[in-house]
Amino acid sequence: MSMLGSAQTASRAARTLAFCKEWPMETQTDAKVTYGIWGLVLGAGIAITIGFAWGGWTTSSTTQKMSEEAVLASRAAICVAQFMNAPDHKAKIKELQGAESYQRSELIEKGGWDRMPGEEKAGWGVAGACVAGLEVAIKTGA
User: Fold this and answer.
1) Range of the domain at 11
2) What separation in angstroms does the CA of 131 have from each of 24, 70, 72, 90?
3) How many CB atoms sit inside 10 A of residue 86's CB?
4) Could you give the CA distance from residue 142 to residue 134 in angstroms, rounded to a whole number?
5) What's the whole-model pTM score?
6) Fewer Cβ atoms within 10 A, N terminus or C terminus of the chain?
């Protein structure tokens, strides 16, 4: 039985090989597959380029940076609002304008305006961003 089984298997393999050699679509199929793969690669490249350039796609590091900038901007806006709502804000504005640029952040920190409501410690960079926001508010007369 094993001889007969192996003879049948060999016969089948020979017929399959003969059929594949005589198959007239082989070169066309190879070309279609090759062009299909290149089309897939090129299409993916174009989709990625368009997505990142105009589609608003971002990497995780860019998204993290944008998120941190947005948080800092909102904290600075709250700091400016707290400073402007202080009872003696006009005197503090004069004091801020009279201080050297490197001392302005310290003035904001001492006043506590850079801390968010309910927080013990201010976030990093809030005082500097608050000073920049206050300078714009003072220039525009807000």
Assistant:
1) 2-53
2) 78, 17, 13, 15
3) 15
4) 9
5) 0.63
6) N
